[in-house]
Amino acid sequence: MSTQQHSGVPQPRGRMGRLSAWLDQPKVLAWLMLGPAVLYVIAFVGFPFLLAIALSMSDATIGDPSLDKFVGLANFSAVMQTDAFQLALRNSLIVTAGTLALVLVLATLASELLVHSFRGKRLFQMIFILPWALPVSLTAIVWMWFLDSTFSPVDWVLVQLNLLGPGSVWGPFNHLYFLGREWLGLASVIVTDTWRMLPLATIIVLAGRMSIPEERFEQARIDGAGVFRILFRITLPALKPMLIVAILFTGLLVIGEMSLVQLLTRGGPGHSTQVLPYWAYLKGIQGGSLAQGAAITLFLFPFLLVASVLALRAAYRSQEA
Amino acid sequence: MLRKIGFYCGIGFLTLFSIVPLLWALVTVFKRDSDMYSVGTVPFFYNEPPTLDHLIFLFTESNFGLFVQNSAIVGIFVVLITMVLSIPAAFSLARLTGSWGERSGMAIFLVYLIPPSLLFIPMYQIVVWLGVANTIWSLVIVLPTITVPFCTWLLLGFFRSVPRSLDEAAMLDGCGQFTTFYRVLLPQVWPGIGACAVFAFSLSLGNYIYAATFITRSAARTISAGVPTELIRGDVFFWPELMAATLVVAIPLAVVYGLFFNYLVGGFRNAT
């Protein structure tokens, strides 16, 4: 221990010493440490975002990607008038809303169970997190085979239970053709999305659940409150900020994912199970119209922005309260 | 007693929900083609003796080994870049930038709001300009756009949860700002950094939209875009191989993620 350290801030020595002392000032160091991340985000998120806006107002194609011609909002109005876009918009909203509803119920249930300790919890955690360990495209493939038009074990079980097949409630065929029909196709996408998002959503909700002091539940039990009363009066209100965070994460990941629909239903039959990101991919990359593809991807952004800001503000406010 | 039955019913339901499609996949891996495509037999049993042929095919006759290797390289680089960028940024926002840094959580989240599905078309052009199209380096450069905002946001919460009295004590002992960060705060947030690394790896592994648009050369593909294109040829699905690929990826990762489960939960406890 030198005397310098006892006197507080050590005096800089020599040129290097002065340089490092200058670098160590809070204001300078703040920018040195924040700078790389900010520059990276500006270069690879901000710039492409502006480029997306520019593309959506140009006539760029893959063959001629220059931005020389400004067409205003023409791409947006052209795209919006097609049936495929309207179906894709409808389906994106249905799939996201349906998934969020299922995920929130199941994640609340799972967090209520996982907050307790029990035998085999480690193993349960590993099984429970399995869906999240898969890349989305592989999730799609697993469910494709699980819901196969001919060899689906779900169909087989339903036939054995006499719910499916000749003379049964669900029709004379031996198969439901989950992925080949409009509403069953959408339902299949919702269930698959729920399956893959549940672990992450549960992790978020559980984080909120563990922050609720146990005394509040004990007090309520002493006062004679039942399971549902405790759930609606104590657990859910206290979980609100984390439920909002879970909604944001799940919602954004679901609404932006194209590979599930691309593999499961290919958007069909027709465009009846089309969703926005896959339609943008088909238009923009496969179809070569970069401008229209960009217009499709940008369409939802203003709505997502407003919804997220409102949700985040609500989350922060209810946490402070 | 009733509570206990309800509890284990819940556990049982969630276990089945998570595992049934994958159990079906597991049964399929070892089935002979003739058995798999036969109608009228019980699909869950082996009506003919099980075989390892599909697993062998996956590793010897397809590029799956390369996909795993590519995904691992991309994942490791993405995690490293993410850590190098987001740990200092989170510290800076939590301790050095004063009052507007305190409120930056929301701003970071808004960056996260611009999803890959919105950026992939212009990003494809950027990748072409940079001359990295069709190589795994395109993903190494671009995937941190997803992980950096997310991990900065999570780490911000971790740095904030460290009591300020700890920094003040270090400063009184003569540590500078950077030494305080390096010697005092960093050891406190190791669990958070571990959780972030797991999240960053899984996000980079899972990404499909960039992997599918930037890379069309089979040997340079990652698992997420490579497996569907390599093992689905037109209308021919190599089902047992596809299921094998899925399980080979999922089971080891699930074990690792499962061991990290409590840390991952901890990662979000300080988040908002």
What's this, in brief?
With 321 residues, chain A is an all-alpha fold. Chain A has helices at residues 3-6, 14-23, 26-56, 74-80, 83-114, 121-129, 136-146, 153-160, 182-210, 214-222, 227-255, 259-264, 276-286, 290-299, 301-320. Chain A contains 15 helices and no strands.
Walk me through this protein's architecture:
- The complex is a heterodimer of chains A (321) and B (272).
- With 321 residues, chain A is mainly α.
- Helix content of chain A is 70%, strand content 0%.
- Chain A contains 15 helices and no strands.
- In chain A, helix 3 packs across helix 14, helix 4 (74-80) crosses helix 14 (290-299) and helix 9 crosses helix 11.
- Chain A is flat, with a radius of gyration of 26 Å.
- Chain A starts with a helix and ends with a helix.
- Chain B has two domains: 1-51, no CATH class; 52-269, MetI-like (MetI-like fold, Orthogonal Bundle), CATH 1.10.3720.
- Chain B has helices spanning 2-29, 33-36, 53-60, 64-96, 99-102, 104-112, 116-129, 136-142, 144-161, 164-172, 177-188, 190-206, 209-214, 223-231, 239-259, 261-269, and strands spanning 232-233, 236-237.
- In chain B, strand 1 and strand 2 form a beta hairpin.
- The radius of gyration of chain B is 23 Å and the shape is globular.
- The relative contact order of chain B is 0.14.
- The mean pLDDT of chain B is 84.
- Classes of the chains: A mainly alpha (321), B mainly alpha (272).
- At the A-B interface, helix 1, helix 2, helix 3, helix 5 and helix 6 of A face helix 1, helix 4, helix 6, helix 7 and helix 9 of B.
- Chain A: It is found in: Cell membrane.
Considering DSSP H and I runs of 4 or more, what fraction of the residues of chain A is helical?
Answer: over 70%
Biggest interface, chains and residues, is: A-B, 110 and 102 residues
CATH fold node name of the largest domain in chain A: MetI-like fold
Backbone shape of chain B: globular
Report the portion of residues of chain A in β strands.
under 5%
| Total number of beta strands of chain B | 2
User: Could you name the CATH homologous superfamily of the largest domain in chain A?
Assistant: MetI-like
Beta-strand content estimate of chain B: under 5%
How many separate domains of chain A? Answer: 2
Distance between the termini of chain B: 37 Å
List segments of chain A where confidence is low: pLDDT < 50 over at least 5 consecutive residues.
1-8
Terminus-to-terminus distance of chain A: 47 Å
The CATH class of the largest domain in chain B is Mainly Alpha
* CATH-derived architecture of the largest domain in chain A: Orthogonal Bundle
The backbone outline of chain A, from C-alpha atoms, is: flat
Which CATH-level-2 architecture of the largest domain in chain B? Orthogonal Bundle
Q: What would you report as the Rg of chain B, rounded to the nearest angstrom? A: 23 Å
